[in-house]
Design brief:
31% helix, 5-stranded parallel beta sheet, elongated, Rossmann fold, alpha/beta, 2 domains
């Protein structure tokens, strides 16, 4: 069965930064985007039950833009004034630059990793006197606290936002030739919205080993996996599949 329509379980990329546009144009595809999950902030009352006091911490480890947003949101809601000498340890340049939405960048102590928590460990180990707060979601990747614990870092997680399943009920009668997933949460959302989902002839593409595991555990068949040697991106993997299955 030829592939004519694809649903990507993520928000639509910004114009000019969307390789799916080229894929659609080149192969005459209809590609739609729909986030299967979304982030909701933890309410102040719920956060206070954790008995975490922002003032007890001298540094913050930021692993995502969501972590940045919800750290400053909760600081505002709890009437905590973030001190000028707060130290920020960002997992990537993108996260560090995003901080400019909340602070005067050049006047702060900011440390930047390359992309993974392990990239920050050397500089974190040199800051042993600091007490670190790690703003995170309810489904934080286990590698982050594991690596911090192994390195002997004095830290505490603070769950400030949650990942929840989106309402997809309007898609009940819509059929796609291919579904593209980037996280296990996307699979959870699929079955929460459509408990009787039957794959049939629908092709499934997955990104990353944890997503692949979730799809397999759900009893679904995977046609496309990324990243793979020669196809590091999802669009490249889909294009190869289309070429190989003409």
């Amino acid at each position: 069965m030829p592939i004519k329509s694809i649903l990507v379980s993520q928000p639509q990329p910004k114009a000019g930064k969307n390789p799916f546009e080229n894929l659609a144009e080149k192969n005459k595809l209809t590609i739609d985007f729909r986030p299967f999950i979304h982030v909701e902030g933890v309410e102040e009352q719920e956060f206070r039950k954790s008995r975490i006091n922002f003032g007890d911490f001298t540094a913050v480890i930021l692993t995502s833009r969501n972590a940045v947003d919800h750290y400053f949101r909760m600081a505002k809601e709890t009437r905590y004034t973030v001190p000028d000498d707060m130290k920020y340890f960002c997992i990537s340049e993108a996260v560090a630059y995003y901080l400019q939405n909340y602070i005067v960048y050049r006047k702060r102590k900011i440390f930047v990793g390359k992309q993974r928590i392990t990239d920050l460990l050397d500089v974190l180990k040199k800051q042993k006197k600091e007490k670190f707060l790690v703003p995170c979601s309810d489904i934080q990747r286990s590698v982050i606290p594991e690596e911090l614990e192994k390195a002997g870092i004095n830290f505490q997680n603070a769950i400030l936002f949650k990942t929840v399943c989106s309402d997809l009920s309007d898609l009940e009668e819509v059929k796609y030739d291919m579904l593209v997933f980037y996280s296990p949460s996307g699979i959870e959302s699929l079955f929460k919205n459509f408990p009787e989902f039957v794959q049939g002839k629908t092709k499934i593409a997955v990104f990353g080993p944890t997503t692949q595991k979730a799809v397999e555990e759900a009893g679904l068949k995977i046609e496309i996996r990324a990243p793979q040697p020669g196809t590091p991106s999802m669009t490249m993997a889909i294009e190869k599949y289309l070429k190989d299955n003409k």
